[in-house]
């Protein structure tokens, strides 16, 4: 995350990190060890930043609401829990450039510490004393779980449609971005119109972010990504680059992709990457990502001009800059 975006809420961002470390405390040593391992792995912290920036964007001349710090930590705990669970489901061995928690310890420990992260998030939420925020977060975590199940059901499918794919990435990824920006608006007491604009901006930003991630799986650098290129193919995940390629290449090439998706593995990864690029699938995925980022910017344009709104614009630019 570029420092200029974080600089806008630098003090609050530091407070969020301190609060996260404080809330990782547990009487069970393994819980603390895995919690610190995954939190300290870094990451862009886009979702907590969305909370902080959204909370200030409606009333830029006011101070940051106290509860925004705790809320940002809640969002990060939920995100971390999904990562712990995802890596077990996907049997991933690397994330953010180092072994996943399940690789470093084991699957049961990773799942159970993920459960701890979820429960700790809701413990903090209770302290916020807002049924409105509680409802948004509860509905969001439920939708994320449904999205994960849908993605699991879609594994190794070669007939998945673009609409089905879009539903998966909206449910498993974009809704948490939407919850972050909407809850930031709620905790700040934003009017309903601005709250809805921020929710939609977060949703579109999350869609753009996931589309870029799916493109980078076939056009990225393993060291920069912090994970292996071609992981989606190896896991049999039919993401948009594969869906579009199958619909726009010749039958022989489409059959190769279908076989790879059906069986999983990365034996034919380089050939699949060539087909994806030649078919225009990467360009199409980039185009979709830019369209989502632009939709987010349109929603943000309804807010008053401020350094916080500009930082939100910058986040939209950042989401797609990785593939520009």
From TrEMBL:
<keyword id="KW-0808">Transferase</keyword>
<comment type="function">
    <text>Supplies octaprenyl diphosphate, the precursor for the side chain of the isoprenoid quinones ubiquinone and menaquinone.</text>
</comment>
<dbReference type="InterPro" id="IPR000092">
    <property type="entry name" value="Polyprenyl_synt"/>
</dbReference>
<dbReference type="GO" id="GO:0046872">
    <property type="term" value="F:metal ion binding"/>
</dbReference>
<dbReference type="InterPro" id="IPR008949">
    <property type="entry name" value="Isoprenoid_synthase_dom_sf"/>
</dbReference>
<dbReference type="Pfam" id="PF00348">
    <property type="entry name" value="polyprenyl_synt"/>
</dbReference>
<keyword id="KW-0460">Magnesium</keyword>
<comment type="similarity">
    <text>Belongs to the FPP/GGPP synthase family.</text>
</comment>
<dbReference type="GO" id="GO:0008299">
    <property type="term" value="P:isoprenoid biosynthetic process"/>
</dbReference>
<dbReference type="InterPro" id="IPR033749">
    <property type="entry name" value="Polyprenyl_synt_CS"/>
</dbReference>
<dbReference type="GO" id="GO:0106350">
    <property type="term" value="F:all-trans-octaprenyl-diphosphate synthase activity"/>
</dbReference>
<keyword id="KW-0479">Metal-binding</keyword>
<protein>
    <recommendedName>
        <fullName>Octaprenyl diphosphate synthase</fullName>
        <ecNumber>2.5.1.90</ecNumber>
    </recommendedName>
</protein>
């Amino acid at each position: 995350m570029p420092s200029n975006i974080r600089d806008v809420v630098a003090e609050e961002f530091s407070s969020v990190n301190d609060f996260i470390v404080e809330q990782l405390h547990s009487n069970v040593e393994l819980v603390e060890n895995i919690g610190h391992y995954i939190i300290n792995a870094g990451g862009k912290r886009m979702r907590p930043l969305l909370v902080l920036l959204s909370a200030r964007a409606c009333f830029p001349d006011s101070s940051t609401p106290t509860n925004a710090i705790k809320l940002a930590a809640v969002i990060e705990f939920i995100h971390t829990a999904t990562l712990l669970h995802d890596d077990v489901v996907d049997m991933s061995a690397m994330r953010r450039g180092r072994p996943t928690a399940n690789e470093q310890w084991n699957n049961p420990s990773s799942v159970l510490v993920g459960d701890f992260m979820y429960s700790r998030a809701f413990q903090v939420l209770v302290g916020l004393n807002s049924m409105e925020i509680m409802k948004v977060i509860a509905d969001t975590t439920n939708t994320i779980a449904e999205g994960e199940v849908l993605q699991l059901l879609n594994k190794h499918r070669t007939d998945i449609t673009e609409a089905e794919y879009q539903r998966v990435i909206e449910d498993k990824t974009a809704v948490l971005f939407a919850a972050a920006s909407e809850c930031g608006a709620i905790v700040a007491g934003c009017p309903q119109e601005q709250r809805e604009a921020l929710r939609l901006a977060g949703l579109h930003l999350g869609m753009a972010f996931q589309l870029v991630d799916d493109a980078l799986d076939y056009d990225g650098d393993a060291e920069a990504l912090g994970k292996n290129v071609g992981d989606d193919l190896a896991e049999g995940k039919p993401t948009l680059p594969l869906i579009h390629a199958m619909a726009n290449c010749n039958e022989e090439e489409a059959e190769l992709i279908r076989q790879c998706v059906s069986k999983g593995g990365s034996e034919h990864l380089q050939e699949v990457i060539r087909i994806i690029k030649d078919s225009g699938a990467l360009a199409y995925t980039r185009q979709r990502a830019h369209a989502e980022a632009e939709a987010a910017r349109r929603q943000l344009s309804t807010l008053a001009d401020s350094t916080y709104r500009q930082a939100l614009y910058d986040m939209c630019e950042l989401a797609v800059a990785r593939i520009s």
